[in-house]
Every structure is written in structure tokens, then in C-alpha cells.
Amino acid sequence: MKSDNIDSLESLKDYISSQDNSKSFVYFSKIPDICKTEKCMLGVDEAGRGPVLGPMVYGIAFCPINKKSILKDLGCADSKQLTEEQRDKIFVDSNNKDYATESIGWAVDVISPNEISTSMLRRTKRSLNEVSMESAIDLIKKALELEVNVAEIYVDTVGPPEKYQAKLQAIFPDIKITVAKKADSLYPIVSLASICAKVSRDHALKVWSFREGIEIPSDGFGSGYPGDPVTKRFLKNFEPLFGYPRIVRFSWSTASNALDENHAYSVEFEEEEETSEKKVKLASKKMTSFFKAEVPVKKFKRHNFFKERCLEDVTDF
Hints:
It is a single chain. With 317 residues, this protein is of the alpha/beta class. The protein has 14 helices and six strands. The chain has helices at residues 9-17, 34-37, 69-74, 84-94, 98-101, 113-121, 128-145, 161-171, 183-186, 188-206, 229-234, 253-261, 276-283, 304-308, and strands at 25-28, 40-47, 56-64, 105-111, 150-156, 176-180. The chain has a six-stranded mixed sheet with strand order 1-4-3-2-5-6, with helices on both faces. Strand 2 (40-47) and strand 3 (56-64) form a beta hairpin. It is globular, with a radius of gyration of 24 Å. The two termini are 26 Å apart.
């Protein structure tokens, strides 16, 4: 949740810079009082679902149903049809203009590339659709916890709209829910949610801090989309044993293919099988051995090699 007030692009960048970009985080704007008393509409959309670089950001926006004309005054439209400058202006205006700040609230869930990849590769795998739906549902729940009087929800779909709508309706039975393809071009409140998500993702990339200490090429790393030639060049630079920095979604086939094509080291992990002799010894352990004082385990200091490369022990896959 948030403690800072984001009211400009600079304060947005400052807030994102203060976060650990290897972890996900949620930001909620100030909730206008009118959103707690009047019936509100709430829109949901995402930015950065497809790129191989950077976070995926889910956004929500909400305002009273009887104030929806404000969204048109701001110029809310399909964020994909707007230029970056237009999106930035709408974002700034929605956080500065009195008529907007008195009636509009928003929130984003910035899902780190690290979380996306580990979710998709863990033993109990979570698909990108599952990650997306959980993010949207959690944002809606948080809005309700903060006493936003949500009466209508509009969502840009993930997968078949009918199934997603049924899922949301079961969770929020007292709210009118509409799930549709290209909802950001149909409903201005979804468009604003999309703009908040897109602007947040764009600036997350602009202020990305490489904890690994790598040197970025002079032309940067591009948009992060697999077809971007700058991104393709960036993916050719990696540590042959440890692979990519955390900005890369290493679960993407684009990343794994680039590693293979550019001759990264192949590593295999083998599990040692217990021999029958070892099993016998374990089975014949004396009862009195369980009552002996434990021998203190010597703690070893982590080598600087691992610290400098931001390598951590992992126990949950």
C-alpha cells in the first residue's frame, strides 16, 4: 500500500525508485470522500503483459457513476491509440485538476519480472492468466476494504470473457460486472485504468536500477517487446553462467532461446538417489540418538561473489 502522494510524473518516478524492483508492490491514490458515499464505477486493465522485459502492471480507476463525464473531459480513450505524451498528460491532469482529484481514485499493482517468472516455473505452476486474475481481484478487494462504494465493474478480459465474468461475479455477487474484449476502447473508466497502468510501467522501466551492477548499452534496452530490435540486441548480452539481470522475464521463450543461441553454459542439477545401504542405516537409528544434545551448526559468511551478483538462496519454487 502507499504512504506517498503521487501527483506528477516526477513523484511517480521517485516512488517507483524507492521500491525494490525485484519485488511486487501496490500503490493506492487518495480515496475521494465522494467515492465512499456515491455509487461508483471501477475499471480494470493491464499494461506489459507481452514484453520479455520489466514488470506487468495492473491498474484500476474509479469514480462516481454520476461523474463519469469527467473521464471524457480528461480525454480518456483507448490507451493504445494515445501517444506517450497524451497518456502522461491525462495521468498528470487526473492527479492535479481539482475536478478530477475530487472524484477520481486509482491504484496499480506492479508485478515484478522476478515474480512472474518464478510463478510460471515453480513446481506448482501459475499461468500468466492466473497471475493476472489474482492481481485484478486483489485490487478490487483492496478498493472495497478502503470503503470505495463500488456498484459497477468493467474489466478488459483475460481469456474468454464469459468465464472471467462468471468468476468475478461469484466473488463479487452484489456488484454489476461487465467483462469485454477491448474494454479500454469501450469504457472510459477502463481507459483511465489502462493509462495509469501504462504510465506506471513506462516509468518503472525509465528508473530501473540494475542491482547486478551491469553496464547498459548506449542505446538502452528498448521497449521490452520481443520484436523490438534494441531489446533483441540487449538480450545477446548476459553472464554465460548466471544468465540475465532481474529485469528479464527468464520464463519467456524469447529469453531462453536467446541464451541457447548465444551459447550460455548448460547446467544440469541431479538429485542423489539414496542407496539401499543408506536406507537401512537410517531405519536402524537408535532411539536414544533423538535425545542427544544437538551439535551447533557453524554459520558461514556468504562470499562476496554471491553478494555482488545479488544471488540468494531459494527454497520455494
